[in-house]
Amino acid sequence: GTSGSSELWLGSVPWIEIGLEGGLPLKVAARRQLHAELVEAGELLPVEIEGLKGLRYAVASDAALLDQAEREVTAEASAAAGGSSAMPRAGVAFLAPLDPLVWDREFLRALFGFDYLWEVYVPAAKRRWGYYVLPLLYGDRLVGRIEPRIDRKAGTLRILGLWWEDDFDPLADPAFAAAFAEAVRAHLAFGGVTRVAWPPTARHRTFVKAVKPAL
User: Fold this and answer.
1) How many CB atoms lie within 10 A of CB 20?
2) What are the pLDDT digits (tens) for 152-176?
């Protein structure tokens, strides 16, 4: 969109105190002018999202990804209706707190119904989830949260917590456990560790049992 938190726009406009920079006005006015020029040049593509007011904008080089997403949604709708379209395999990703998708908290609530706060700066006693909890993306849904901690000294990825959204059952979709295991393997490689320490809580035992054979 043309709004959102300041992190989305830092570095995109001149931030000088006095005068002009390259003939541009300052701050918000410069942002609006540059945005209009990028749209006119075709560098930014306006995108309308069903159910949300206003336009969003995608970088033109990502047009192929938008086309792919449209094909996947069409295939999903066809499969749900009993059609023969092959469904692409949904993957799992642990989204970083500063991922561009996660920056816009209002967008997350409006599109995904997902309320996310990075609690690293929240006093420990006031945290709802944890110090470094990440959103869990499965296909095109935000289905839960995970708090992974990389312990390089012990060579271990410690999963301190797992939380699922109220409308998501991780065992209801037989493909989810394997997709989750793939994301865990990617995080192991990222951290340069080889072992996983799972949450000790009883409520996760059945899910962990389903994931382990795929690791």
Assistant:
1) 11
2) 999 999 999 999 999 999 999 999 9
Query: Do residues 149 and 107 touch, judged by C-beta distance below 8 A?
Result: no
Q: Whats the size of the chain, residue-wise?
A: 215
DSSP string, 106-130: HHHHHHH------GGGS-GGG-SS-
Are 167 and 203 in contact, with CB atoms under 8 Å apart?
A: no
Q: How far apart are CA 37 and CA 191, in angstroms?
A: 41
Tokens at residue 24, please? Answer: 């541009």
Distance CA 131, CA 120 (A): 5
In sequence order, which residues have a C-beta less than 8 Å from that of residue 203 and are 6 or more positions away?
none
Q: What is the pTM of this model?
A: 0.79
Q: Which residues of 157-168 are buried (b: 16+ CB within 10 A; e: fewer)?
A: bbbebbebeeee
The per-residue pLDDT for 17 is 44
